[in-house]
TrEMBL record:
Region listing for Disordered, in residue ranges: 1-30
Keywords carried by this UniProt record: Lyase, Magnesium, Metal-binding
Family to which the UniProt record says this protein belongs: Belongs to the terpene synthase family.
Entry's EC annotation: 4.2.3.-
SUPFAM superfamilies, sorted: Terpenoid synthases
The protein's name in its UniProt record: Terpene synthase
Organism: Streptomyces rimosus subsp. rimosus (strain ATCC 10970 / DSM 40260 / JCM 4667 / NRRL 2234)
Superkingdom field: Bacteria
InterPro entries: Isoprenoid_synthase_dom_sf (IPR008949), Terpene_cyclase-like_2 (IPR034686)
Cross-referenced PANTHER family: BETA-PINACENE SYNTHASE-RELATED, TERPENE SYNTHASE
Length: 395
């Protein structure tokens, strides 16, 4: 089976990643070529993350099986696909964000993550449908249906992405609670919806505001589905009565924003080449504040650090009277944040040449000793100001 994707002839598969019109300007008064040159010199700053790393599983066996699993669906038949599969190193990601998971269940999370990242590479931010939500929506609905009802993906007629999502769903349903499986399926749907918003904005030449990006960005990174993957890997299920409280919802959103913004910082140079800065925090700050790229990067790191301080303060307040299930969930969010940072620091995916051989030496990952912005004052943004309200004893 050749993984050409839903409705896409093989001739349209990319030979390389880079080939779209750029977000214009690198601050006022610069043309596109100047902007690219200036952005190429941006230095990635140290981020503040006092959350300790957790010991994790050996990844080599899981990684080998990820590649074998992807090959079964034809995702390694194309040279570009194969290089991306090797560069993703999703066993590292799954084992770092869910260090208490079993090897068998971590395997499912690593398989799904590799599948999702490949779909992202081929179709989404810098891919074939990056400016065509009308082309992605039919594929998205079929893939969501496959995840929701894996019984319908048998028979060999479905698109390979739909079949692979269905198989992941089938394996999860044998081990996880219905509550967590539902969170994962809903998270996938949420990811695709947010991705379509980004495609539409690229097509129309618009860039989201920072306030809008707080809503779109974490959903576009599939953070809800990723947190469900941690619960499934570790065999837990936070009751909905707990997960739906304002403080837990706020803490979950802060954690999701931290993961998103750290990814944006670390993947900045990759997305400069993809010319997809419309969905990157640094590009959004550059556009909204009309500042040069390096200053936008500095402000993005400061925003990350400010959210880290909020996360730590809110987490401490919740932990004071937490049930055992909530305490477990707090630890899982810690691992999500720190594990994602550590993964991003070593993954070839976030280096200048994602097709290069895996390199164990971190490209990033030297943490700042203190936050560049440690304020606990709420951001003046309507969609997120309520997060800081949850620090109040009256909340």
């Amino acid at each position: 089976m050749q993984a050409t994707g839903y409705g896409v002839p093989e001739s349209e598969l990319p030979a390389d990643r880079w080939g779209h019109d750029p977000l214009t300007g690198a601050g006022p008064g610069r043309d596109a070529d100047d902007a690219m040159a200036v952005r190429a010199t941006v230095v990635i700053p140290q981020l503040y993350c006092p959350i300790p790393a957790a010991p994790h599983h050996e990844t080599a066996g899981i990684e080998r099986r990820v590649v074998e699993w992807m090959a079964r669906f034809g995702f390694c038949d194309n040279d570009f696909h194969h290089a991306q599969v090797l560069a993703n190193r999703t066993a590292e990601w799954a084992c770092r964000i869910a260090p208490d998971g079993s090897s068998r269940l971590l395997q499912i999370g690593a398989d799904w993550s590799c599948l999702g990242l490949l779909l992202d590479d081929v179709y989404l931010d810098g891919g074939l449908f990056s400016r065509h939500p009308e082309r992605f929506l039919p594929m998205a609905v079929q893939v969501i249906h496959g995840a929701d009802h894996p019984e319908t993906t048998d028979g060999g007629k479905a698109d390979p992405y739909t079949v692979a999502f269905g198989e992941v769903s089938y394996r999860y349903r044998r081990h996880a609670t219905g509550t967590v499986v539902r969170r994962w399926v809903d998270g996938v749907a949420e990811w695709f919806l947010a991705a379509c918003v980004g495609m539409g904005q690229r097509a129309s030449g618009t860039v989201p505001s920072l306030e809008e990006y707080f809503v779109i960005g974490p959903r576009d990174r599939g953070t809800k589905a990723s947190i469900a993957v941690i619960e499934m890997a570790e065999g837990t299920s936070l009751p909905s009565e707990e997960s739906e409280t304002p403080r837990i919802r706020a803490l979950t959103q802060v954690a999701s924003a931290l993961v998103t913004f750290a990814n944006d910082v670390y993947s900045y140079h990759r997305e400069v080449k993809e010319q997809s800065l419309e969905s990157n925090l640094v590009g959004i700050l550059e556009h909204e504040l009309r500042v040069p790229p390096q200053e936008a990067m500095t402000r993005a790191a400061a925003l990350h650090d400010r959210l880290m301080c909020l996360y730590l303060a809110l987490r401490e307040r919740i932990a004071r009277r937490a049930t055992p299930e909530v305490r477990c969930y707090l630890g899982q969010l810690d691992h999500f944040i720190r594990g994602n940072l550590d993964y991003s620091a070593v993954s070839p995916r976030y280096r200048d040449d994602p097709g290069a051989a895996p390199d164990p030496a971190p490209a990033f990952g030297v943490w700042a000793d203190s936050p560049s912005d440690g304020s606990l004052e709420p951001l003046p943004l309507r969609t997120v100001a309520w997060w800081w309200d949850q620090l109040s004893p009256a909340a």
